[in-house]
Structure formats: structure tokens, C-alpha cells
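Quiz preparation item.
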């Protein structure tokens, strides 16, 4: 229950462009429930926006690992985060180094 509350607060702060606070909330949500694909996926988006591509990729991979195919919103979040990762010009060195 607390994990879900932290995730929701992180989501609200993300929508308000309060990335640092949102990141802290999502990390707390993940610490409380390590298999939360929603929290990992949103954390990935935030880390992309903050320019931390290696950690964003790790968060994305965790989201993918824990995602359940029966939940379309998880698939949509993964797709959005992946497109954001791929499309980031600043992450080009990361992609050249052999990652996905």
C-alpha cells in the first residue's frame, strides 16, 4: 500500500516537472516493492529527462522484466520510455557502446 502511495506521489510530481522529488518518491516505492514495473518505468522516464541514460536503461530493463502482458498500460509505458531513450540525442554515445 505504501509503495503505491509513493508511486502515485512520484507520478504527480513528474507531471509537475518536479523530477528530483519524483525520482526520490519512485526510488522509495521501488525499495518497498522491488517488482513494481510502473515505478521502474516512470523512473526510467525521469532519468532520461535528467540525462542519466545508463541508469534509465537499467530502470527500463527492470520495468520490462516485471511487466505483465495482461496490463496494456505497462506495455504503453515501456514503449514510451523506450522511444524516449532511443530518441535522445544526448544518449547517442550510450547506444554506440553496444547497448540495445
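Solution:
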Amino acid at each position: 500500500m505504501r509503495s503505491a502511495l509513493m508511486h502515485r506521489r512520484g507520478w504527480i510530481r513528474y507531471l509537475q516537472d518536479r523530477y528530483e522529488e519524483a525520482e526520490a518518491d519512485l526510488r522509495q516505492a521501488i525499495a518497498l516493492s522491488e517488482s513494481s514495473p510502473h515505478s521502474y518505468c516512470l523512473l526510467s522516464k525521469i532519468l532520461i529527462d535528467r540525462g542519466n541514460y545508463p541508469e534509465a536503461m537499467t530502470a527500463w530493463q527492470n520495468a520490462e522484466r516485471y511487466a505483465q502482458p495482461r496490463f496494456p498500460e505497462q506495455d504503453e509505458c515501456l514503449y514510451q520510455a523506450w522511444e524516449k531513450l532511443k530518441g535522445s540525442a544526448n544518449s547517442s554515445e550510450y547506444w554506440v557502446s553496444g547497448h540495445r
